[in-house]
Amino acid sequence: MKNLKIFWLLSAMLLFSCTEKGPKEIAIGKDQCDNCKMTITEAKYATQLITEKGKTYKFDDIRCMDDYASSNPEQSSGSTTYVVDFPTGDFIKTQNASLIKGGSIKSPMGGNTQAYSDKSAANEAAEQSGAEIIQ
């Protein structure tokens, strides 16, 4: 009986240690924004917030993520946020991104912000779109 308990404990530990800690794939046209509840339709503007406990919240725009974080400090405290690198479509940590806002950029919920992993690409995009670099 004791061996069975140890087996189940080790199995559970193995299962939880194998779960992904990074951003999850977003099902465009199916997943809903956890802030405004609208369907996420544009992958390049999607964002995610992952809590310390590993719960993932998905958003259709950086503005929705910021609004959610402000309204839910218990969820956002100690969380990691991700934005999509505009040129590649890959998620990157928000803290590592260069963000540009405004100009001709139009995003789903009016955040009008694009993220770039490469600062020179962000500078070029900001110049072309009339946007300003905000991070």
UniProtKB/TrEMBL annotation:
Pfam family, one: NosL
Region Disordered, annotated ranges: 103-135
InterPro entries xref list: N2O_reductase_NosL
Coiled-coil ranges from the UniProt annotation: none
Organism superkingdom: Bacteria
Protein name stated in the entry: Nitrous oxide reductase accessory protein NosL
Organism encoding this protein: Planobacterium oryzisoli
